[in-house]
Design brief:
By secondary structure, the chain is mostly helical. The mean pLDDT is 81. Helices cover 66% and strands 0% of the residues. It has a domain of 27 residues.
Amino acid sequence: MKNIHAQILGRLGGVKTSKAKARASRANGKKGGYRKTRKYLESL
């Protein structure tokens, strides 16, 4: 059986967005978002 408290704590940690992460995400969005790989583009 898994520890329910550890599951909740881990889930919260994965959702947390720091100020630095938010700033980096906005800067990346201004550059056009995440880079799409060649494999992804060929599948379209």
